[in-house]
Write a structure and sequence with these properties.
alpha/beta; Rossmann fold; about 40% helix; 5-stranded parallel sheet; about 110 residues
């Protein structure tokens, strides 16, 4: 029986960035489950019970802030790191106030 790898769910609608994050995280020893939309991401989270969620706020179907709210209803202690092109302080504060653990601006 193999060693269980920590599970990371990446919710990112930019397919190229999702592939890049998947490869990088797998190279670091994580099991990565990706989703290209907010709704798909919520489904993956429900079934995976991940150790970490990396979340884009600017998804096409569901605002990432709504996903943070839902995650915090389900689990209060699972880490959520926001990866976003949104750079305003208002967005950063809103994400952190809703329960995100960190906020990383995309280049």
């Amino acid at each position: 029986m193999g060693v269980l790898k920590p599970i990371v769910v990446v919710i990112e609608d930019n397919a190229k960035l999702l592939r890049l994050l998947r490869r990088g995280l797998q190279g670091l020893g994580f099991e990565v489950r990706g989703a290209g939309s907010g709704r798909a991401g919520l489904t993956v989270i429900i079934h995976s019970k991940p150790d970490l969620v990396l979340l884009d706020l600017g998804l096409r179907d569901v605002d990432g802030l709504e996903i943070i709210k839902k995650l915090r209803e389900w689990w209060s202690s699972r880490p959520v790191i926001v990866l976003s092109e949104r750079t305003s302080e208002v967005d950063k504060v809103a994400a952190l106030d809703l329960g995100a653990d960190d906020y990383v601006a995309k280049p």
